[in-house]
Design a protein that fits this description.
Number of strands: 3
Shape: globular
Largest sheet: 3 strands, parallel
CATH topology: Rossmann fold
Pfam families: Response_reg
Structural class: mainly alpha
Helix content: 40-55%
Radius of gyration: 13 Å
Keywords: Phosphoprotein
Distance between the termini: 23 Å
Oligomer: single chain
Protein name: Response regulatory domain-containing protein
């Protein structure tokens, strides 16, 4: 949850729909994007596709962070360029923070 990021001192920005997510990615150039599949407007797969096709955002790593398990979703995310696919219900927020910090320290 967002509170876990705040409590851990992680800098973050949020978007309320897919279009806003793409716009913020272009303007803010984050080190990492966490993207849900279920979003208003365009879904996370479409957002991921848009991000990876745009030279301004193509190199930003994207992790899918969702409650939709399933190998097909995971494979689709990977084929579109997602670096990681994490199911929220399988991981407590502290685990996400740990993985994010480890990843960010390696880039």
């Amino acid at each position: 949850s967002v509170r876990a990021f705040k409590d851990a001192g992680v800098s973050y920005a949020t978007a309320f729909n897919g279009i806003e997510a793409v716009e913020k990615a272009k303007s803010e150039k984050p080190a990492l994007i966490l993207l849900d599949i279920m979003m208003p407007g365009i879904d996370g797969f479409a957002v991921l596709n848009n991000l990876k096709k745009d030279p301004q955002t193509a190199k930003i790593p994207v992790w899918m962070l969702t409650n939709l398990p399933g190998q097909m979703n995971k494979e689709l995310a990977a084929s579109l360029g997602a670096v990681e696919y994490l199911v929220k219900s399988d991981n407590p927020p502290s685990k996400f923070i740990e993985k994010i910090n480890l990843f960010l320290s390696s880039i």
